[in-house]
C-alpha cells in the first residue's frame, strides 16, 4: 500500500511532465483501436450487404465460380432461362426468379460523365427482381418497364444531382443502352459506394448477356418451414448435373462474397497496424527518456526511501506502478480517441465516395482490450530499464546527490554491441545487393533493416558524441557562446540525446527508404518505356475494364492513325514438352505489336511468333520447363478449343513491360475461340502517321470522349501517370508515418522540458551572471535543432542505405535504375530543423519566464 501511495503521489506531482508521454501512448493506442474499429465496421457493412442481397439459394453457372468480375469477353457466364421453370417446380421452392447481373459496364449521364465510383467500387447493371427488395426499396418513380427506362440507386442520383426523366447511358460490350430514369431505389442497408442501374429483364438479357433466353443466376426462395440447406439439396437433386451448376445458400453466398473482399480489408488492416506499431516503437523512446530523467531528478528522494528501509525491489516497483498509471490513463483515452478516429475515417471515406454508416459502427470487446493491453504493456516495458536503474542507486550515493550510477563498463559493452549489430546489418544489406534471386535477397534485406535499426539505436549515444560535434561546428558555432552552450547541453547526456534522436530517426529512415524506392521505380519504368515502347498512343481503362467493341471501332476510324494494335488476354491450360501442365494467360495481339513494344529475343524470331499456329514464351518460363525454340506446346483455351503451337521465339524477361508474356497472333486465337467467346481488348495501341501526332492525339481524345472510362495517353502522359500513381501511394504512406514523427516530436518536447527542470539551478546561475532571456531561449532552441538534425542525419542515412539495397532487388525484376531523390532528402533535412524549433517553443518560453532567485535557490 505504501508503494501505491508513493507512486500515486509522484505521478500526480509530475503530471505535467507525464502529459506528453501519455499523449504518445494515446496516439499509438488510438491508431490501433481506430484501425480495428474501422475495419470491423467495414466488415459489418459488407456482411449486412452480402447477407441482404443473397437469396435463400442462388443457382449460377459452374464456370462463373472461377470468373473474374470483368469476364474476358465482357459478358458474364449464363445459364438457360428454362432452368427457372425447372427449379420453380421443385418441392420446397416458393419462388424462382431469373436474374441478370453484370459489373462489366459503365454508367454515364447525358454529358458523358462517368457516374461510377472513384474508389474502386463497382458499377452494377441488372434487372429488377423481388429478391432486390431484400436490400432496396423504390423511393420515387417505378421500376423500368421497357428498353427506354432505367432505375438507378439513390446514392448515385444524389451524388450527381440526377432526377426522374434524366437520360443515362449504360455502356456494355453489346452496345450502348440509352434510357431515361423512371425510378430511384434506395438501399435499406449501407451501400459502400457501388453505382447501380436496373434495366427491364429483356433489355438486360440482350444487352448484358448477349442473348434473350439466358440469366446470369437464379434466385430461389424457400417455402414455409424449409431450411436453406434442405432447399439447396432439393434443387441440386432436381438439376441433376452438378458439373454444370453452382449452388450456394445465403450464408455460403455471403461468405464467398466476403472472401473476395477479405484480402483487400486484411491488407489495409495490417498495413495500418504496422504503422501503429512504428508509432509504439517511437513512443518507447519517449517513455524511456521521461522515466530516466524523472528518476535522475528524484535521486535524493530515492536515497531517503532506501535509507528508511525501502528495498531495491520496492523502489523498482514504485517506478513501474507510475508506468502502469501512465499506461492506463493514456490507453483509456486512446481507446476513446480511436473510436473517434474510426468515425473520422468513415466520414473521410464518405467524402471520396465510399459510404460507411455510423449505424454499422462496430466496437468488439477485443478492441478496447487490445488497446489497453498494448498501451500498458508497452509503457511498463519502456519504464523497466529506468526503474531497474533507480533500484540500483545506493542510499549514500543518492543522499550525496550523486545521481544514478554511471557504469562505464556497460557503456563500452553497449558501444561494442551496437557496432557488431550495425556491422552485421551492413553485411546483410551488402548480401542483398549480391543476391541472384528476389526471394533470397528479401530475407537478407529484412535482416539488414532490423539489425542496422537496432544497431543504430544501441550505438546512438556513441554516434551522438561525434555527430553533434560536427553539427556544432557547422551550425551552432555561428551563434557564438550561446551556440557552444547548446552544443554542450546536447553532449551532456549522450544517452538521452541518442534516444531522443533515435525516435525521430525511425520515421525519417522509412521516409528516405520509400522515397529512394519510389523514385527508382519511376526512373526505371521511365527508362524502360523509353527503350521498349515504340507506339505513340496507349488506350486503356481507368478501372481495369476491357475496351468495349464500339470504342475499339471508334479508335480504328480516327484519321491520321497509321496502325492500331489489338491486345487481348486469354486464359489457357498449357501442356509443355516436359509433360507439365499449367494454367497461364496467353496474349493475342496483331503482328504490328512488335513495333509498338520492342522486346529482346533470346532465341528464334519474334515476328514468326505471329505466324500460323505459332507462339512465343518468356525466358523464365522457357528455363523452368526446358523449352527451346522449335518445341511444341499444347494450348487448351478456356473459352474455346485446343491448339498445338510451335515456339517460334523466346523473349527476354529482363524487362518490366509485359514481363513473362506469351504472344500469339489474334488470327490464331480466332481460329480456336468462337467469336462470341473471344475476349475484348484489355489495352490498345495506336501509332500516328508521320507528322500527324498532334492531330491524331486530339482526334483520339475527341472520339473517346463518349467513353469516359478510357484514357488516351501518349508516352509523356503515361510516364506522368505512373509518377502520379507512385506519388499518391507514397503520400499515403508518408501520412501514416506522420503519426510516428508526431510522437517523436513530442519526445523532443518532453526531453527539453524535463531537461529545463533538471537544469533549473544552472539556468538561474547563468541568468545571474548576465545571460539574457532571449539568449536563454535561443540556447534551448538551438539544442533542440541540433538533436532534431542529429536524428535526421541518422534516419536519412540509414533510409538511403535501405532504399539502395531494396532497389538492387527491384533490379532483379527489371527496375534497374537507382535514383536518389535529393530534393526530397534535402527538404526533409531542412524541415527537421524547423521541427526542432517548433519542439523547443514551449520549453524555451518556460525557461525564459523563470525567476532568477527562485531558480538559484532550487535544490535540483
Automatic annotation (TrEMBL):
Record localization: Cell membrane
Membrane topology reported for the UniProt record: Multi-pass membrane protein
Molecular-function GO terms, alphabetical: transmembrane transporter activity
Domain named ABC3 transporter permease C-terminal: residues: 275-395, 736-851
Domain MacB-like periplasmic core positions: 19-237, 500-698
GO cellular component, one term: plasma membrane
Keywords: Cell membrane, Membrane, Transmembrane, Transmembrane helix
Transmembrane segments: 270-296, 319-343, 363-385, 412-431, 443-476, 497-517, 732-757, 782-802, 822-845
Family: Belongs to the ABC-4 integral membrane protein family.
UniProt name for this protein: FtsX-like permease family protein
Organism for this UniProt entry: Streptomyces pratensis (strain ATCC 33331 / IAF-45CD)
Amino acid at each position: 500500500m505504501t508503494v501505491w501511495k508513493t507512486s500515486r503521489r509522484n505521478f500526480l506531482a509530475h503530471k505535467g511532465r507525464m502529459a506528453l508521454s501519455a499523449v504518445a501512448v494515446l496516439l499509438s493506442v488510438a491508431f490501433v483501436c481506430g484501425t480495428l474499429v474501422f475495419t470491423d465496421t467495414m466488415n459489418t457493412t459488407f456482411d449486412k450487404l452480402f447477407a441482404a442481397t443473397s437469396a435463400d439459394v442462388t443457382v449460377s453457372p459452374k464456370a462463373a465460380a472461377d470468373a473474374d468480375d470483368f469476364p474476358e469477353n465482357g459478358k458474364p457466364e449464363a445459364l438457360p432461362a428454362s432452368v427457372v421453370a425447372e427449379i420453380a417446380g421443385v418441392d420446397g421452392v416458393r419462388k424462382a426468379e431469373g436474374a441478370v447481373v453484370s459489373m462489366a459496364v459503365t454508367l454515364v449521364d447525358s454529358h458523358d460523365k462517368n457516374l461510377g465510383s472513384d474508389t474502386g467500387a463497382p458499377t452494377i447493371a441488372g434487372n429488377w427482381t423481388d429478391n432486390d427488395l431484400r436490400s432496396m426499396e423504390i423511393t420515387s418513380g417505378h421500376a423500368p418497364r421497357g428498353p427506354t427506362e432505367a432505375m438507378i440507386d439513390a446514392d448515385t442520383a444524389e451524388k450527381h444531382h440526377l432526377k426522374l426523366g434524366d437520360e443515362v447511358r449504360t455502356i456494355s460490350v453489346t452496345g450502348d443502352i440509352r434510357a431515361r430514369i423512371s425510378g430511384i431505389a434506395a438501399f435499406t442497408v449501407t451501400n459502400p459506394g457501388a453505382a447501380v442501374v436496373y434495366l427491364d429483364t429483356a433489355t438486360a438479357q440482350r444487352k448484358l448477356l448477349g442473348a434473350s433466353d439466358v440469366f446470369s443466376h437464379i434466385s430461389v426462395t424457400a417455402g414455409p418451414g424449409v431450411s436453406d440447406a434442405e432447399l439447396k439439396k432439393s434443387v441440386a437433386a432436381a438439376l441433376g448435373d452438378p458439373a454444370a451448376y453452382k449452388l450456394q445458400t445465403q450464408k455460403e453466398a455471403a461468405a464467398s462474397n466476403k472472401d473476395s473482399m477479405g484480402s483487400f480489408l486484411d491488407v489495409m488492416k495490417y498495413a495500418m497496424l504496422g504503422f501503429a506499431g512504428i508509432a509504439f516503437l517511437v513512443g518507447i523512446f519517449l517513455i524511456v527518456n521521461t522515466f530516466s530523467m524523472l528518476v535522475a531528478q528524484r535521486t535524493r528522494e530515492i536515497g531517503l526511501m532506501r535509507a528508511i528501509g525501502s528495498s531495491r525491489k520496492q523502489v523498482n516497483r514504485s517506478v513501474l506502478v507510475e508506468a502502469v498509471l501512465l499506461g492506463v490513463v493514456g490507453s483509456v483515452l486512446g481507446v476513446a480517441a480511436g473510436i473517434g478516429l474510426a468515425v473520422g475515417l468513415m466520414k473521410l471515406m464518405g467524402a471520396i465516395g465510399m459510404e460507411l454508416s455510423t449505424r454499422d459502427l462496430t466496437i468488439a470487446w477485443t478492441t478496447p482490450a487490445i488497446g489497453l493491453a498494448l498501451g500498458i504493456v508497452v509503457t511498463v516495458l519502456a519504464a523497466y530499464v529506468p526503474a531497474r536503474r533507480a533500484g540500483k542507486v545506493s542510499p549514500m550515493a543518492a543522499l550525496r546527490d550523486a545521481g544514478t550510477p554511471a557504469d562505464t563498463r556497460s557503456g563500452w559493452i553497449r558501444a561494442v554491441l551496437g557496432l557488431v549489430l550495425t556491422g552485421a546489418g551492413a553485411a546483410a544489406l551488402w548480401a542483398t545487393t549480391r543476391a541472384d534471386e528476389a526471394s533470397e535477397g528479401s530475407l537478407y534485406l529484412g535482416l539488414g533493416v532490423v539489425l542496422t535499426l537496432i544497431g543504430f539505436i544501441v550505438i546512438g549515444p556513441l554516434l551522438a558524441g561525434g555527430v553533434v560535434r560536427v553539427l556544432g561546428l557547422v551550425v551552432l558555432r555561428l551563434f557564438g557562446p550561446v551556440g557552444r552552450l547548446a552544443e554542450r547541453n546536447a553532449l551532456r547526456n549522450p544517452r538521452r540525446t541518442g534516444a531522443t534522436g533515435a525516435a525521430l530517426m525511425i520515421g525519417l529512415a522509412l521516409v528516405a527508404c520509400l522515397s529512394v524506392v519510389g523514385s527508382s521505380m519511376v526512373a526505371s519504368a521511365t527508362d524502360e518505356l523509353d527503350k521498349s515502347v515504340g507506339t505513340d498512343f496507349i488506350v486503356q481503362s481507368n478501372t481495369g475494364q476491357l475496351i468495349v467493341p464500339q470504342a475499339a471501332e471508334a479508335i480504328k476510324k480516327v484519321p491520321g492513325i497509321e496502325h492500331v494494335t489489338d491486345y487481348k488476354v486469354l486464359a489457357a491450360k498449357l501442356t509443355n514438352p516436359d509433360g507439365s501442365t499449367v494454367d497461364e494467360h496467353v496474349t493475342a495481339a496483331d503482328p504490328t505489336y512488335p513495333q509498338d513494344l520492342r522486346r529482346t529475343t533470346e532465341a528464334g524470331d519474334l515476328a514468326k511468333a505471329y505466324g500460323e499456329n505459332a507462339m512465343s514464351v518468356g525466358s523464365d518460363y522457357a528455363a523452368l520447363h526446358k523449352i527451346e525454340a522449335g518445341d511444341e506446346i499444347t494450348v487448351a483455351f478456356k473459352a474455346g478449343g485446343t491448339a498445338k503451337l510451335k515456339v517460334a521465339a523466346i523473349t527476354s524477361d529482363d524487362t518490366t513491360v509485359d514481363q513473362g508474356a506469351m504472344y500469339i497472333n489474334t488470327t490464331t486465337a480466332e481460329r480456336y475461340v468462337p467469336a462470341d467467346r473471344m475476349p475484348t481488348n484489355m489495352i490498345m495501341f495506336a501509332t500516328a502517321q508521320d507528322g500527324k501526332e498532334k492531330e491524331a492525339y486530339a482526334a483520339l481524345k475527341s472520339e473517346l470522349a463518349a467513353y469516359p472510362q478510357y484514357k488516351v495517353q501518349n508516352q509523356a502522359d503515361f510516364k506522368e501517370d505512373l509518377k502520379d500513381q507512385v506519388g499518391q501511394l507514397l503520400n499515403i504512406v508518408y501520412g501514416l508515418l506522420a503519426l510516428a514523427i508526431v510522437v517523436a516530436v513530442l519526445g523532443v518536447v518532453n526531453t527539453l522540458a524535463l531537461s529545463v527542470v533538471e537544469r533549473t539551478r544552472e539556468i538561474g546561475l547563468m541568468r545571474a551572471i548576465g545571460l539574457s532571456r532571449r539568449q536563454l531561449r535561443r540556447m534551448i532552441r538551438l539544442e533542440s535543432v541540433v538533436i532534431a538534425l542529429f536524428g535526421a542525419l541518422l534516419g536519412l542515412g540509414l533510409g538511403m542505405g535501405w532504399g539502395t539495397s531494396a532497389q538492387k532487388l527491384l533490379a532483379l525484376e527489371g527496375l534497374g535504375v537507382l535514383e536518389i531523390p535529393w530534393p526530397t532528402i534535402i527538404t526533409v533535412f531542412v524541415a527537421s530543423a524547423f521541427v526542432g524549433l517548433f519542439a523547443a517553443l514551449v520549453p524555451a518560453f518556460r525557461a525564459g519566464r523563470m525567476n532568477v532567485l527562485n531558480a538559484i535557490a532550487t535544490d535540483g
